[in-house]
Amino acid sequence: MIQIKSKAEIQKMIDAGKLAAEVLNETGQRIRPGVSTLEINDFCHKYTLRRGAKSAPLNYRGFPKSICTSLNNVVCHGIPKREDVIKDGDILNIDVTVIYNEYHGDTSRMFMIGAVKAEVHQLVNDTEAAMWEGIKTIAPNKRINDIGDAIQNFLSTKKTNYGIVRAFTGHGIGKSFHEDPPIPHYSQREIRDRMRPGMTFTVEPMVNLGTHEIYIDKKDKWTAYTKDGSLSAQYEHTCLVTEDSYQVLTKI
Ligand code: MF3
Ligand code: CO
Ligand code: CO
Fold it and tell me: What radius of gyration do the chain's Cα atoms show?
C-alpha cells in the first residue's frame, strides 16, 4: 500500500530531508586522500547525533555502520572500513539516511577524488543528470514507471553503453526507511501505479560503466559489486509529490 502523508507528516519529512542534506554536505567536506571510509562514518555518526537525529542504517537489518560508503566498483551498501583509505582517482558514493522526529530523510551523492579519468567523470555527471531527468517527471497522475522511462531514455542517448542497475530501486519513505512503492530506474511497463499528492519516495539510480548485473559479497552479505568489475555511480534524493508537481526534500 502506498501511503499518502498528511500535512503534519509532510512537515516532518521536510525537516528530516533538510537535515539529511546538511549532514551529507558536512560529511562530504571530510573526504580527501588518506582518510578512511570508517573515519567518514564516525564523523557522520557523531554529527548526526549532535544535530538531534539518528543514523538509520546502523543496525538496520543487521547493517553494521551508520552510512553506506560505496567506492569505485561498489554499486551500493558499501560498509565503512578502516582499510578502505581514499586515494587519488577514486570515486565514492556517500549515502546518508537520518531519522529525525521519527521520519526518514535519505540522500546520496558522488565524490570524485583528485584526478579522475574523463570517462569516469562523464559517468558521474550522466548519473546525476539521469536522476534529475527522473525527478522532473514527478507530478500528480503521472505513472511511477515514468521515472524509469525518463532515466533509461536519457542514458540511451549517451555514447557509452551504460548498465542501469535493476537489482535495487528507489522506495517510498516516511516513518519507515523503505516503504511502497519500489521505484525502478529502468523502463518497467508493468508498474502502472500513479503518483498522488502527499506521496514521498526516493529516486536513486545506480549506473555502471559496464553490465547492469551485480553480486553481493558472500562474507558481509551487504556490499553490492558490479559483476564485471566496472565502476558504478549513484545519486539519490527524497522527493514529495505536491498538488501540481514535486518538491525535492533533500536539497541544500
Ligand atoms: N540508504 C540506502 C537507500 O538508499 C539504504 C541503505 S540500507 C543499509 O535505500 F542498511 F545499508 F543502510
Ligand atoms: Co534510498
Ligand atoms: Co540512501
Answer: 17
**Burial bucket for residue 118 (CB in 10 Å: 0-12, 13-18, 19+):** exposed
How far does Cα 101 stand from its chain's mean position?
21
Residue 122 alpha carbon to ligand 2 centre in Å: 23
Residue 111: predicted pLDDT? 99
Q: What is the CATH number of the domain that holds 224?
A: 3.90.230.10
pTM over 0.70: yes
Phi then psi for residue 159, to 5 deg, are -75, -25
> Is 218 in a helix, a strand, or coil?
coil
Q: Give the ligand 1 atom nearest the CA of 222.
A: 11
Number of domains in the chain: 1
Residue 252's pLDDT band, with cuts at 50, 70 and 90, is confident
Ligand 1 atom with the shortest distance to the CA of 236:
4
Counting ligand 1 atoms within 8 A of each CB, the residue from 41, 63, 223 with the most, and so the one to mutate, is 63
Name the residue range of residue 65's domain.
7-248
